[in-house]
Amino acid sequence: MALRFLPLVCAGEIFELKAELNSDKKEKKKEAVKKVIASMTVGKDVSALFPDVVNCMQTDNLELKKLVYLYLMNYAKSQPDMAIMAVNTFVKDCEDPNPLIRALAVRTMGCIRVDKITEYLCEPLRKCLKDEDPYVRKTAAVCVAKLHDINAQLVEDQGFLDTLKDLISDSNPMVVANAVAALSEIAESHPNSNLLDLNPQTINKLLTALNECTEWGQIFILDCLANYTPRDDRESQSICERVTPRLSHANSAVVLSAVKVLMKFMEMLPKDLDYYGTLLKKLAPPLVTLLSAEPELQYVALRNINLIVQRRPEILKHEMKVFFVKYNDPIYVKLEKLDIMIRLASQANIAQVLAELKEYATEVDVDFVRKAVRAIGRCAIKVEQSAERCVSTLLDLIQTKVNYVVQEAIVVIKDIFRKYPNKYESVIATLCENLDSLDEPEARAAMIWIVGEYAERIDNADELLESFLEGFHDESTQVQLQLLTAIVKLFLKKPTETQELVQQVLSLATQDSDNPDLRDRGYIYWRLLSTDPVAAKEVVLAEKPLISEETDLIEPTLLEELICHIGTLASVYHKPPSAFVEGSRGVQHKRLPGSAGSGESVDSPDTGSAAGVSDAPPAVIPSQGDLLGDLLNLDLTPPATTGPPPPATSGMQLGAMDLLGGGLDSLLGGDLGGSAAMGAGFGAPPAATAASFSAPVSGGLDDLFDLGGGVGMPMGGYSPPKTVWLPVMKGKGLEISGTFARRAGVIQMEMTLTNKAMSVMTDFAIQFNRNSFGLAPAGPLQVLTPLSPNQSIEVTLPLSTVGPVMKMDPLNNLQVTPTL
To answer: Which of 90, 445, 591, 652 could form a cystine bridge with 482, CB 3.0-4.6 A?
Structure first.
């Protein structure tokens, strides 16, 4: 560890500076203060000179006063008792004839973050807020925001917030801009305060000031306008017309803020309106101009353009050439341009795009080449008419025999097979020739998938898969899982030839592997093949859904929020502010006006989940025949919608469905209904202990609350059937079904989570909004394993009734926000 020692000021030097600071000569005094500031700047401790420097405040020299104020801001926090000495001077300076000194005094007051002197500064600040000079007023407006950060209650009590609101009507545009900036900052820390009560009259004042204030003032005003929701499309068009001239501003921040306002208000314009088409044409040139700036600014612009193109690709559909990569572009700019090229690819420009991508695939930068090859595959999936040309291009690249190019090409060809089944399988022979050169897990897994999927067309498919099996334990999990599935597919297609091979892979997966995912999949295949080979064929060889190019798009509700944050860090990270801003508990999620008012209400602030990538909207759980009301109000009559209770039985026979229970042994010995070749030779894997269900099962809410009092009654014997709470479309691929039950005196939410998206889901969390019964999770949601595509998992969440209470309409509605 390296230690850094700050330079010390010797006693003699302090004594000399003290003498000079108390000199009668103004020039000598000013030089002394300069020396003090210089020492302070390099880290020397000159706090011992505090009273002597403060005495120098009594001067008419503006330069000297600035230096003293600089010293004061630096040391006031460490010397709060002595800082009070300066209060009288501040009050005096706030009444100085020179507006620069008045503004300097009020600015310094705002920067001294000492509670002891805050209350002494209220009167000078009030005078400066109503000063005749606009420079003083605009400085005082910012000072209110700083003071609010130190002591919010004091600012509210003194009426400074009302004065700030009055400043929005000020005649000077810079005062208006600073007042808006101060109110916006205060509103961010107090989201429910409704400080910026925007109405058409206020908006008109802001638009008038927009044309005359500085570039940073314009940004403040534009950001404020972006938070306004127009009453109708006419008002929206009027605002757009007045904001459009900002698109030609030299400052890129002003341009992006103007784009943000226009993107938001365009949502309210009818698409058949002439002005809508005109606005689309006006948005393209400023965005293109941003790409001629320095690489760092280009990157920020490209990240914002990426969002804009996902929302409105028509804006830049004719500007493909500006996204072609230049030889001297940094890699981060190249990769962003490549991504946007794919988003803009269409039948009209695909030939141009493919020619470019083929050139990029011969570059020297490995990461860029890989991305270019993947981009060719994405083009094939996005533009069907170009698929054949894309496949031909990929085959040409495979012939180059460049290792990483070949591997990427095989990965994307697998995706093309998924999109266009039984169309381009003639290229499989070429792919098999490169089998030995594959050393990356993703490429090996893709090749294994191709061999397994088209095993009936490959004569030596069993030999190819057997060659992978030799080093099974050395392969990555991704390859092992794919190899297991491919060999099972092969067995179902050629049962007589590959029985030994499938037994070998099942044994490796279930008995020799420590990976739970691999072991579980192995057991499932083993039991499927043992009990019902016909069902196994239907499951394993089922027709697969076609993949779509939309899988890489940002989730729609997140995209809407990011569009509302264009020109900020959120638009560069492609994450909502709550994901990376500390202490962002009060951050409100923004939505585009077109999607507002959808009926989904979120009463709670943002969950602040660190891992939150996408927040599903709150799901209102249906009433289920007043189940929730009955559950908490102890209504012991059975729900009307549940039907008659199931009859009591001495034992629950699981039959052929008991794949993991004790009934498996007897099933394996009988006639399985499959072909002899497929059924023979399969032993049963180790079976789990069968669960006993000997207790009689009764129905009704009497049992739910364990009030029956009968002998042998199970705890919580009745559970209403699960219903779908969160459909796939609302959950962005996640489906949640569930019900409520009471087990051992504890209310529980029993759910089935099903991943119907194309990517793995992890980091589940759940948040309850305020509800009529104070229901809240008694602990975190426990989902122990990642949820793979098409996988379901059962989850039980214990609930408490000590959460915040708010009457809902209807009474038994419960709003829940799942996050992942």
So the answer is: 445
Q: Which of 395, 302, 299 is nearest to 341 (CA)?
A: 302
SS3 615: strand
Residues 6 or more apart from 157 whose CB is under 8 A from it? none
Residue 205 dihedral angles phi and psi, to the nearest 5°: -65, -40
Phi, psi of 818 (to 5 degrees): -85, 140
Q: HSE-up of 674 (CA within 13 Å, CB side)?
A: 23
The three-class DSSP label of residue 682 is coil
Beta bridge partners of 765: 819
Taking residue 172's Cβ as centre, other Cβ atoms within 10 Å add up to 17
Provide the 3-class DSSP secondary structure of residue 626.
Answer: coil
Least confident among 146-155, 679-688, 725-734: 679-688
Residues 304-357 pLDDT 10s: 999 999 999 899 988 899 999 998 899 999 999 999 998 998 888 888 999 999
Q: How confident is the model at residue 10 (pLDDT cuts 50, 70, 90)?
A: low
User: Could you identify the residue written with the tokens 């076609």?
Assistant: 546
Say if residue 658's pLDDT is above 60: no
User: Which class for 36: exposed (0-12), middle (13-18), buried (19 or more C-beta within 10 A)?
Assistant: buried
pLDDT tens-digit readout, 367-418: 899 999 999 988 888 888 888 888 998 988 888 888 888 999 999 998 888 8
Residues 6+ apart with CB under 8 A from 671: none
Q: Which of 431-440, 689-698, 756-765 has the lowest mean pLDDT?
A: 689-698
Q: Which segments of 47-133 does DSSP mark as H helices, in order?
A: 50-55, 62-75, 80-83, 87-93, 99-111, 115-118, 122-129
Residue 168's identity, in one-letter code, is I
Burial 686-715 (b: 16+ CB within 10 A, else e): ebeeeeeeebebbbbbbbbbbeeeeeebbe
**Cα–Cα distance, 302 to 305 (Å, whole number):** 5
Nearest to 178 by CA among 123, 136, 220: 220
Let me know: does 133 contact 99? Beta carbons within 8 Å: yes
- Cis ω on the peptide bond leading into residue 810 (within 30° of 0)? yes
The phi, psi pair for 66, rounded to 5°, reads -60, -40
Q: Are 713 and 703 in contact (CB under 8 A)?
A: yes
Q: Dihedral sign, CA of 523, 528, 533, 536? A: negative
H or E segment to which residue 726 belongs:
strand 723-726
- Model confidence band, residue 3 (pLDDT cutoffs 50, 70, 90): very low
Sheet-wide strand order for 723-726: 723-726, 734-743, 746-755, 792-800, 776-777
Angle at 723 between CA 720 and CA 725, to 5 degrees: 130
Q: Is the pLDDT of residue 572 over 90?
A: yes
Which stretches within 226-273 are classed as H helix? 233-243, 252-265
Burial 516-551 (b: 16+ CB within 10 A, else e): ebbbebbbbbbbbbbbbbeebbeebeeeeeeeebee
| Contact criterion met (CB below 8 Å) for 212 and 250 | no
**CA dihedral defined by 380, 419, 316, 348, rounded to 10 degrees?**
50
Q: 19: Cβ–Cβ under 8 A, 6 or more apart, which residues?
A: none
CA 273 to chain centre: 34
Strand 776-777 relative to strand 765-768: parallel, antiparallel, unpaired? Answer: unpaired
In the chain, what are the helix, strand and coil shares in percent, each to the nearest 5?
Answer: 55, 5, 40
Token pair recorded at residue 398: 């495979």
Q: What mean pLDDT is reported for the chain? A: 78
